[in-house]
Design goal:
The protein folds into four domains: 16-89, Uridine Diphospho-n-acetylenolpyruvylglucosamine Reductase, domain 2; 97-209, Uridine Diphospho-n-acetylenolpyruvylglucosamine Reductase, domain 3 (2-Layer Sandwich); 212-430, Vanillyl-alcohol Oxidase, Chain A, domain 3 (3-Layer(aba) Sandwich); 445-485. The protein contains 16 helices and 19 strands. It has helices at residues 22-28, 50-63, 114-124, 138-144, 151-154, 157-160, 183-189, 226-238, 285-291, 300-303, 317-327, 349-355, 357-361, 405-419, 445-458, 467-485; strands at 16-18, 43-46, 67-70, 86-89, 97-100, 105-108, 126-127, 162-168, 174-178, 199-206, 208-209, 212-221, 245-252, 273-282, 306-315, 335-343, 369-377, 390-400, 423-425. Strand 8 (162-168) and strand 9 form a beta hairpin. The protein is globular. It binds flavin-adenine dinucleotide. Residues 69-75, 79-80, 90, 110, 131-133, 136-137, 139-141, 143-144, 146-147, 193-194, 196, 199-200, 328, 429 line the site of flavin-adenine dinucleotide.
Length: 486
């Protein structure tokens, strides 16, 4: 089938799409990565109200099949495509962003994209930590926790910003979950990601007054300085105030951005670059320079590799969105895989850097790249199921256009499997329910126990079965850990 461009507001002539109809296949394939797997739900329900969601859940119960939910399809493993199940597509469900000046809260639906939330915030001069990439949907982002803007000090978006959710549970009831209503559901929904057992139809989140975004950048040629550069860049994060800063590191071939290349091969003489995008949110340039000043003195041996440097300058969120569109594009049928770990905080930095080196430096194609975010998320398991410490989010994004998908994606899975001994777990947004080998734990063991109890109460018939994968991953990691300590 020929490639059709990802459409964030796709419309269909019917509410229920059945196999073999052209609209069914267009909808099934409407994902930001063109690598749509060969899994075919029995029906796709294009829902536009909580009642439609309840109808879809009833239909799944009648048929005795499982349910998958898709808000934007950015989880590239596309676990939402359940063979013979029901896919609930939320594209048109509460597709708005409202701001209430009395409560100073936003209210929005699950398929609302980052750039739609951002545009509303610009209009009302407020801030809320949405994600960094323009087309990511609210649903999966917030269920996973949400490494939103300036996450370091303000926590994951679901921890400190989300006040309420509207959720359709498997028996079709529409419930409000918050810190005072259906508190077990609210706990379970914030951090379980694709393991969640209901359909979120609306979110409410608090906001603060807007300030100004600033960015300072460095680009180094990696040469033989991988260890030195990584250590310097990550340690300087420790010297940078947590509140109002957003520190990101990338490793890539500059040829990634050169459209004159027609193949995915890494060009013969290509040299890896390491980029730093250091962002902060403050009212004045002077404050911004202070916030990012830990990076002022680049050591002499690293200066030799420094290719470009830009001083602190004003940015708009749309500037960053445009950069991200280049970083993971979906213009020409590109296919993508994301693998990641969250580092185990007790592992010394040099051992971490050494262990992850193959995943960082052995990129499989010209368009692949590494993305590391200094997140500093400290979980509070008593408050939310988000329960794995997230100091560094370390990921590799593998991209390809040609037929070599399985070879390059498996090669990267092998590298991430070998990084598991230095991981505290996997950010649940990147958890792959279809290939377990590179998955770390998406939740702590104690959070998972509590989650399983709540889940059994709401979903006794297993309409949402991904939790079984979480249990299998926990057992796998515990077996590996026990072996290692024998
Ligand atoms: C380019 C790119 C940039 C990213 N940037 C960030 C970032 O800055 N910060 C960050 O934290 N993450 C980021 N992510 C990860 C992203 O948050 C996850 O992929 C997330 O799962 C996407 O959610 P979605 O709803 O858009 O995607 P989907 O693939 O539609 O959803 C993922 C899963 O979430 C569940 N789900 C989705 N909607 C609902 C719903 N309404 N009710 C119940 N379950 C639902 C389903 O199980 C689904 O399989 C990024 C990913 C990409 C590809």
């Amino acid at each position: 089938m020929s490639f059709s461009r990802y459409d964030t507001k796709a419309t269909y002539s019917s509410k229920v799409l059945v196999r073999a109809s052209p609209e069914y296949e267009r909808c099934r394939r409407n994902n930001p990565s063109a690598d749509t797997p060969g899994r075919y739900p029995q029906e796709i329900h294009i829902v536009s109200s909580p009642e439609d969601v309840a109808t879809a859940l009833r239909r799944a119960t009648e048929l005795g099949v499982s349910v998958g939910v898709r808000s934007s399809g950015h989880a590239f493993s596309l676990g939402a495509l359940v063979q013979d199940g029901i896919l609930i597509d939320t594209t048109h469900l509460n597709r708005f962003v409202d701001y209430d000046p009395n409560t100073q809260e936003l209210c929005f639906g699950p398929a609302v994209r980052v750039e739609e939330v951002s545009s509303k915030l610009t209009e009302v001069k407020r801030f809320f930590p949405h994600g960094h990439a323009p087309t990511v949907g609210a649903g999966g982002f917030l269920l996973a926790g949400g490494q939103g803007w300036f996450v370091r000090g303000w926590g994951a978006t679901c921890q400190t910003w989300i006040t309420k959710m509207e959720i359709v549970v498997p028996d079709g009831r529409v419930l409000i979950a918050s810190r005072s209503e259906n508190t077990d559901l609210f706990w379970a929904a914030r951090g379980s990601g694709l393991g969640f057992f209901g359909v979120v139809t609306r979110f409410w989140g608090r906001t603060i007054p807007a300030s100004t975004l600033w960015e300072r950048t460095f680009t180094f040629e990696l040469r033989d300085k991988y260890e030195r550069l990584m250590k310097w860049a990550l340690e300087k994060g420790e010297d940078t105030p947590k509140y109002g800063t957003d520190l990101n590191l990338t490793i890539f071939y500059p040829e990634k951005y050169d459209n004159s290349f027609v193949t995915d091969d890494v060009p013969k003489h290509a040299k890896l670059h390491l980029g730093l995008s250091l962002l902060c949110y403050s009212d004045t340039e002077r404050e911004a320079r202070t916030l990012l000043s830990a990076y002022d003195d680049v050591p002499a041996d690293l200066r030799e590799c420094l290719m470009h440097m830009q001083p602190v300058q004003k940015r708009q969120f749309v500037d960053i969105f445009n950069k991200k569109r280049e970083f993971i594009g979906n213009k020409k049928g590109e296919k993508w895989q994301i693998l990641s770990i969250l580092n185990e905080p007790s592992v010394p930095l040099p051992r971490l850097i050494e262990t992850i080196k193959p995943a960082m430096c052995d990129l499989q194609t010209r368009t692949s790249s590494v993305f590391i975010c200094i997140c500093d998320i400290v979980p509070d398991e008593s408050d939310a199921s988000l329960s794995i410490p997230q100091k560094y989010y370390i990921s590799t994004i593998t991209g390809w256009n040609d037929e070599r998908g399985p070879a390059v994606s498996q090669a990267m899975r092998d590298r991430y499997r070998r990084a598991l001994p230095v991981a505290s777990g996997t950010y649940v947004a990147d958890y792959d329910p279809t290939h377990d080998e590179a998955n770390g734990k998406p939740m702590s063991d104690s959070a998972l126990e509590r989650f399983l109890t709540i889940r059994a109460k709401y979903d006794p018939n297993d309409l949402f079965p991904t939790y079984k994968r979480f249990v299998a991953t926990r057992d796998k990691i515990n077996r590996l850990t026990n072996k290692a300590t024998l």
